[in-house]
Specification:
This protein is an alpha+beta fold. The N and C termini lie far apart (63 Å). It has five helices and five strands.
Length: 159
């Protein structure tokens, strides 16, 4: 088996959450991972969740040092930070394309994701106005609606 790839979910100084999706559901792997990472100098605490494939590290050393230790121990290799975001974006785009095809088939070409978003946001705007929440929530929804409609509002204040 090749070395596991760990994706950075979030990282703050001294605290990093990683996802290891290919190892999700493997409690034995995560128990061994926790035991071995606790031997790394500078790691304060290791918390794992095999059900979600998640690893939370509290540390006093740079993440790069921990990543080098993990790679040397063949525990995991750290993926570039943007790889998980790109994976999520690609998955969301594929889901929206599928939904768009389903709507087009069901609505005989009259419905698509854009039309559903426009109708949904317009409806939510009306609900917020009816509730008297005109200033902030309704204006936000109208702004989102305008973005979906792709209106070209004058940027320089001229009409």
């Amino acid at each position: 088996m090749s070395i596991t790839v760990a994706h950075i979910v979030h990282s703050l100084p001294g605290r990093t959450r990683l996802k290891l999706p290919e190892r999700r559901g493997e409690p034995r792997y995560f128990a061994q991972l926790s035991e071995r990472l606790n031997q790394c100098t500078g790691i304060v605490r290791v918390q794992t969740n095999p059900r979600t494939g998640s690893l939370l590290l509290e540390h006093r050393v740079p993440l790069e040092q921990i990543a080098a230790f993990a790679q040397a121990q063949q525990l995991f290799t750290l993926a570039p930070p943007e790889s998980l975001q790109q994976e999520i974006k690609s998955s969301a785009q594929a889901s929206l394309r599928w939904l768009n095809r389903q709507l087009a088939q069901t609505g005989e070409g009259l419905l698509n994701v854009r039309v559903v978003l426009i109708l949904g946001l317009a409806g939510l705007t009306l609900i917020q106005v009816a509730r008297g929440q005109i200033l902030l929530p309704a204006t936000n929804l109208l702004w989102f609606l305008a973005q979906v409609l792709d209106l070209n509002w004058p940027r320089d204040g001229k009409r």
